[in-house]
Amino acid sequence: MAVLPLQGVTVVALEQAVAGPFATRQLADLGARVIKVERPGRGDFARDYDREVKGMSAYFVWVNRGKESVVLDLKDDADRALLDRIVARADVVLQNLRPGACEQLGLGSAALRARHPRLITCDITGYGDSGPYRDKKAYDLLVQCETGLVSITGTPEEPARPGVSIADIAGGMYAYTGVLTALYERERTGEGTALAVSLLDALGEWMGHPFYAQAYGGAPVARSGARHPSISPYGPYLCGDGARVFLSVQNDREWVALCERVLRRPELTRDPRFAENPLRRAHDDELTAELERCFAGHTANGVSTLLEGAGIACARLRTVGEFAGHPQLAARDRFGDFGSPVGSLRGLLPPVEVAGRRAPMRSVPALGEHTEAVRAEFS
Questions:
Q1: How far apart are the first and last CA of the chain?
Q2: Which residue is catalytic, options 116, 209, 228, 298?
Q3: Which residues face 347 on adjacent strands?
Q4: Active site residue 228
């Protein structure tokens, strides 16, 4: 088996829920040894979020593959001493516990790096380590609200939560890339560093377009359901069989192709309501009526064929179940099997493909599965 990029790197994860575990799972996928420290009793509380995967939590299965689970009571002197020995041989310590918790235990970044200058520490918080929101609980949906994401998601009548834990994912991805950057830097300097990522900052970066649009355009970004807030035509359109096709026109060249080759209405390109994208967006309701009038004589599959032939981007609205059977994923063999306490499971391979190397799919750990082995190793 080929050597993985992070083979030989040890990560100690004082983590829970999604943001921290999502970051360390990416490191585990690249070959890092991730020692996940869990509390006695029930461990990471994400283990109890649901029972959808043969009795296991879908959240936990998703973000904890490839790790070692070690149960430690950090208020117990012997367990705390064991953790200190593990940290002394680690490369990275990543934590997303409540603000101040690690400092109270003597495990804050400053204290750890004073003892171990080559150590890389990464603290994930909700709102940062200072300011009036420092100690505010920062669950995913609440951070989405604070960044304004929920205010621009949904229909004109009702805001909506995006369907995935996007604040946690954003924070986890920046922590992951930050650790990779710090490992690269340490190769050149010999020194570790202290990283800090807040979910507010991470998701705030992803809010760049609406932020600049409102800051300089003046008007609030409106909720537009499945339509694009600033590009038209872009979204779902009703066809003659009652189904909808999603399409996207990104520039005037594609707009001309849509009118001439799909709608068979070249005169629309000269219509003053639709001459350029800002005008099309301002008259989106009228443009939608024009498109759906033309699509009424075709099935959604027929419209999709016409769009593909004209070079217009389009898609069908799939359910999650249909995505799991997506022909493109099947054709590219993008699923793999991995172990778990409830038997073999199947999931998507990591998204980065490396030439000549198939990413490993290592097991999801049972609570405390590796405790005794780690105790023996670091005794």
A1: 30
A2: 228
A3: 336
A4: yes
Mean pLDDT within 352-379? 93
CA angle 191, 193, 199 (to 5 degrees): 160
80-83, long-range: CB < 8 A, 24+ apart: 80/105, 82/374, 82/375, 82/378, 82/379, 83/12, 83/37, 83/107
Chain centroid, CA 213 distance in Å: 24
CB neighbours of residue 360 within 10 Å: 18
Residue corresponding to tokens 């998507």: 348
Burial letters for 122-135: b for 16+ Cβ neighbours within 10 Å, e otherwise?
Answer: bbbbbbbeeeebee
Arithmetic mean of pLDDT, 160-175: 97
Helices (H), the chain: 19-29, 58-63, 77-88, 101-104, 109-115, 140-147, 166-189, 199-206, 208-217, 252-257, 277-282, 284-295, 300-309, 320-324, 327-331, 371-377
Q: At what angle do helices 199-206 and 208-217 cross, to 10 degrees?
A: 70
Q: How far apart are CA 14 and CA 97, in angstroms?
A: 7
What pLDDT does 1 receive?
58
- Residues in Cβ contact with 39 at an 8 Å cutoff, skipping those fewer than 6 apart: 71, 72, 73
Q: Which residues contact 28 (CB under 8 A, 6 or more apart)?
A: 11, 34, 65, 66, 67, 362
Helix, strand, coil content of the chain in percent (nearest 5)? 40, 15, 45
Domains along the chain with CATH numbers: 10-207+334-377 (3.40.50.10540), 234-317 (3.30.1540.10)
Residue 354 has pLDDT above 90, yes or no: no
Nearest Cα neighbor of 147 from 202, 97, 195, 218 is 202
pLDDT at 357 over 90: no
State pLDDT tens for residues 78-112.
999 999 999 999 999 999 999 999 999 999 999 99
